[in-house]
What we know:
Four copies of one chain form a homotetramer.
Chain A: H1 3-16, H2 22-46, H3 49-52, H4 56-80, H5 92-98, H6 101-118, H7 124-134, H8 146-157, H9 159-184, H10 195-206, H11 219-260, H12 265-277
Helix pairs in contact in A: 1-4, 2-4, 4-6, 6-7, 8-11, 9-10, 9-11
InterPro entries (chains A, B, C, D): Ion_trans_dom (IPR005821), VG_K_chnl (IPR028325), Volt_channel_dom_sf (IPR027359)
GO molecular function, one term (chains A, B, C, D): potassium channel activity
Membrane topology (chains A, B, C, D): Multi-pass membrane protein
Amino acid sequence: MQGGLRDLRKQVYRIFAPRKGGKLGYYTDWFIMLLIIANVSAVILSTVDTIYEPYAQMFQSFEIFSVAVFTIEYVSRVWSAVEADEYTGAISGRLRFASRPLLIVDLLAIAPFYIAVTGIGVDLRFLRALRLIRLFRLLKLARYSTAIQTFGWVLKDRKEKLVIAVFANGLLLVVSSSVMYFIESAVQPDQFSSIPATMWRGVAALTTVGYGDMYPVTMSGQFVGAITAVLGIGMFALPASILAAGFMEATENKLDERKQCPHCEKEVHLEQLEKIEQ
Amino acid sequence: MQGGLRDLRKQVYRIFAPRKGGKLGYYTDWFIMLLIIANVSAVILSTVDTIYEPYAQMFQSFEIFSVAVFTIEYVSRVWSAVEADEYTGAISGRLRFASRPLLIVDLLAIAPFYIAVTGIGVDLRFLRALRLIRLFRLLKLARYSTAIQTFGWVLKDRKEKLVIAVFANGLLLVVSSSVMYFIESAVQPDQFSSIPATMWRGVAALTTVGYGDMYPVTMSGQFVGAITAVLGIGMFALPASILAAGFMEATENKLDERKQCPHCEKEVHLEQLEKIEQ
Amino acid sequence: MQGGLRDLRKQVYRIFAPRKGGKLGYYTDWFIMLLIIANVSAVILSTVDTIYEPYAQMFQSFEIFSVAVFTIEYVSRVWSAVEADEYTGAISGRLRFASRPLLIVDLLAIAPFYIAVTGIGVDLRFLRALRLIRLFRLLKLARYSTAIQTFGWVLKDRKEKLVIAVFANGLLLVVSSSVMYFIESAVQPDQFSSIPATMWRGVAALTTVGYGDMYPVTMSGQFVGAITAVLGIGMFALPASILAAGFMEATENKLDERKQCPHCEKEVHLEQLEKIEQ
Amino acid sequence: MQGGLRDLRKQVYRIFAPRKGGKLGYYTDWFIMLLIIANVSAVILSTVDTIYEPYAQMFQSFEIFSVAVFTIEYVSRVWSAVEADEYTGAISGRLRFASRPLLIVDLLAIAPFYIAVTGIGVDLRFLRALRLIRLFRLLKLARYSTAIQTFGWVLKDRKEKLVIAVFANGLLLVVSSSVMYFIESAVQPDQFSSIPATMWRGVAALTTVGYGDMYPVTMSGQFVGAITAVLGIGMFALPASILAAGFMEATENKLDERKQCPHCEKEVHLEQLEKIEQ
């Protein structure tokens, strides 16, 4: 392998490696983050006909440009991965690197475009779903976003409690929806047509959303509905409380760490990123 | 009594006794748990006509199979109960054992089926209610589910606070609904036809569900409605806060206990179960 | 004054005085509490035509009976008040006693009946309002109910915080409703007819009730509505949090006190009552 | 400059300076506060036609009176500002003083009136917006209101946590709305016409307002809607929890400080005001 190419690979590796990229790495990070956000905004705006139709060409050009950049990013990451001690081995190392969750997300962000272009196994329904798939590019943000990382950490940390709370809520939903179905289906057979259909109403009631598309009309149905709504506040707030408590603790710790070494705030931040990425 | 039968009874007792069942007991527990969940799912799905009608035969066969298993389970539990020191006495011991809450649940899970089959005192309304009664089989899960046990414990532990909070909410509901009735019944006599009918609206407002089927239209009614909604957040959140605080504490203790002896996690779990069951 | 009458007055005083009534006082308390609850239930049920009409005579007899009992209670309290050291003086002492808040509530619970009977200044509207006024008898419960006393105490204790939170919520409501009015009134002049009318919608949104009778339809109105709803969760939950925290603390203290002296639970309870009543 | 005028300027400066105004300053503060509240009430009431039309003349006179008072207040503040050590310099000092946020609010509270009167660049739409602009006078309250100051402080103190929570909520909203759009737009193209339109529904669901103007009708849409509603409770409650915790802490500190020196309560209060104003 040529020395020049090897030097380039080392430099590329540094740009994408956390904590080592220097100024160029810092700007690359920001450029990709902004491009992801611009991509998601484009998908959202492209569903508004009055916005999409006059600028259809522009939207398509931007899509091609984005895929090009993300492809260069993906190829660069995989190509330069062998510079890391744990991924030596021209093929085996790169394959192990490419099977890390964040790298799979990177691949999924561009693969659908190439499948559509080549036209293998593509029909209209696939093309329609393609727009939705482009939203998965948001997941690429996980590499940079403290918010996503924090939530991932909280979910993992409070798993046991969350499972208990979710299971208890599931029980409450099944029982209340079944009782409601047996009471109301006699009077409103169209609305409360089955227990699964009543469950949708049950979620609306228990989360206090109350869409107003279905509600009990019998005396006993309203009584059960009232009891359910009151219980719903208590029960459905539990996962929320658990998440909130975990989140508060997690951000407090994170911010405390930063405060302890105010001159190296960035260092700490990147170190944490590295831990997650590797 | 024959020695072989006595050995079998001892073995059966062990299978159903917490902490002593070994591998066979462990699999039996899981089998019954899954059967309960499958039963409840079957009841739910059987209310969807498009699912039930093509598979009616299958649903009925599954019901018969389930009742058979639950009957064997119930009979085995009662028959082998005399092996325990506290339930000696062929008839008196078994009767005392059979009157424990969890055993009554076991009986209720199968009895309706036999009443329907024998046809004593059965009419169409009873057969209809039978499906609902089958949902009570969920209560059988109480023997295995930490979530249900935790909630039972929390409710008992916070009883005094909950009673005060529920009573205060009841007062708020009575007062706000009565005032609303006297204001709105003059303008909307069909909607706000009586205080009990207005209470239904009151619960929807106080729990912030807001179904949209009834709402005040007069200026003073809307003013009272606004005050009520604001108070409702504060007051109806109280039982929720009490439950959440109790639940958090309970799970924290439970998880801590487990963490203290990581090599005997199952032991701790079963020991707690035993306390509850006896 | 005769000795026999004086003895009776002393005994009557003891029956109604907290902590001194003995068994007779205890039963009197319970009898009056149950009568209050029965009264309120009667008022609520009497608004349901299908319940009231067949039993109209019974409802009226019960009302006369209740007023008679409450009148005897009121007269007995005032008459025997002079037995207390701080209310000596046949007329001045009794007047001072009768002007205490709980005694005024006692008077208001019976006075409307006598006004209606004598027919002075009575028209049909007054008779209609009479039913509502009867609900104020609930306030008589304040003498016995820990829940009402606790809330009274919490409101007093957290007054400063609550005032700040309520003021901040008022500001948010005024600003959001005004902005919403200026945006939506051009498109939906009937629904968003004025700022006060829009405020009703604002409360429904900020408390997350969302009745569905009014909602923004313009893009900017929906944007403001979305921001408002998100802010509403944060802001309108504040008074709730303050109340809940105060309530938790209050009940904890109360229950702790009781636990410290388990053999005189009733004593503590009555002592607190006495403090509040005097 | 004449000695008499200089004395007047010093006295005017004292009236408006926190902590130095004495009795006259105290009454001036209260007069301006009440005038602000009266102004906002006038704007709100003037949108009710049945109130505005009979008293149109009175509303206009009150507006002229208010602008006059606020103009005198503004001119007095700027004119006397040079008395402060940090704003010496007849023009440069006053300009620096006039560019402080609270002074800009003071200017914005009166400027629109003069623009409308002079008629430069004024059309009907501007006159309509004028009424709304008058509501900005509420911001003048910031100088006196502890509630507004407390919230400003809390927002600044919890900025980092709030940014993470808001960003996470934004992600949840984008993802859930996009998924909902792709599911429901096929069945209800009028309601779920684009992702931004669906986002409005998403906010209503995630904040549990549930207006009832748009809701999913397909099975999968309802499933996503249910998941979203449950997540919404957890996620959208986070900023609320952060704000509430910050607010609790802030008011506790503030009230504690006051309690420590009960004889100079006002001093502490004004000292804090001064810090914020300068």
